[in-house]
Specification:
The complex is a heterodimer. By secondary structure, chain A is mainly β. Chain A has no helices and eleven strands. Chain A is 0% helix and 53% strand. Chain B contains no helices and eleven strands. In chain B, strands 2, 4, 5, 6, 9, 10 and 11 form a seven-stranded mixed beta sheet that branches. Chain B has a four-stranded antiparallel beta sheet with strand order 1-3-8-7, with no helix packed on it. Chain B is globular, with a radius of gyration of 13 Å. Chain B starts with a strand and ends with a strand. Classes of the chains: A mainly beta, B mainly beta. Chains A and B meet through strand 5, strand 9 and strand 10 of A and strand 5, strand 6 and strand 10 of B.
Chain lengths: 111, 115
């Protein structure tokens, strides 16, 4: 059974701080990893889709890396802003067409 | 706006009742996924359809069922509702099956409250 774990569960940072959190997944039978950003009262929004070991993707102040051999991905936010406050989800599609989501990291950025 | 439409946005119903949640995927997307988010839990995958056929099943209760119609919209039917079924139900769509390297687009969700 594929288990996708995210840490920490929640994170409080000050505006301007840089931060990062982790998504761990079994390294065998890896297909892809998706990062989503989920703001309160909105639906999850796709950030990155990562497929290759060593992938690095960037969107503005947010970037992500992927290590499929050791089974983890990091999401980095540089210079956090209050509008970055959200839950960040990672998800792994399985070979059986099912996508497993982690429980998310809830980020709070204080002005 | 993700292009995925879910109705209704809110639903309040009594225990034992049956409800139907509806999802219209993004134009052209063939895959529809249903997820449940209960209090204090992350997203739980329920079921996936691709072009009218069931493709994957997650932690979906036997009291729940779903289908995808020829026009690609999907319905999630929840019956014999219990208090614990109160949750936010999301629908997502993607262009290809499995979402292996394609992103999914989520609807706004239907908040179901069972009283």
């Amino acid at each position: 059974i594929l288990n996708v774990e995210q840490s920490p569960q929640s994170l409080h940072v000050q505006e301007g701080d840089s931060t990062n959190f982790t998504c761990s997944f079994p390294s065998s039978n890896f297909y892809a990893l998706h990062w989503y950003r989920w703001e309160t009262a909105k639906s999850p929004e796709a950030l990155f889709v990562m497929t290759l070991n060593g992938d690095e993707k960037k969107k503005g102040r947010i970037s992500a890396t992927l290590n499929t051999k050791e089974g983890y991905s990091y999401l980095y936010i540089k210079g956090s802003q209050p509008e970055d406050s959200a839950t960040y989800l990672c998800a792994c599609p399985t070979g059986g067409f099912k996508t497993i989501f982690g429980a998310g990291t809830r980020l709070f950025v204080k002005a | 706006d993700s292009g995925v439409t879910q109705t209704p946005k809110h639903l309040i119903t009594a225990t034992g009742q049956r409800v139907t949640l509806r999802c219209s995927p993004r134009s052209g997307d063939l895959s529809v996924y249903w997820y449940q988010q209960s209090l204090d839990q992350g997203l739980q995958f329920l079921i996936q359809y691709y072009n009218g056929e069931e493709r994957a099943k997650g932690n979906i209760l036997e009291r729940f069922s779903a289908q995808q119609f020829p026009d690609l919209h999907s319905e999630l039917n929840l019956s014999s509702l219990e208090l614990g079924d109160s949750a936010l139900y999301f629908c997502a769509s993607s262009a290809r099956p499995g979402g292996l390297n394609t992103e999914a687009f989520f609807g706004q969700g239907t908040r179901l409250t069972v009283v």
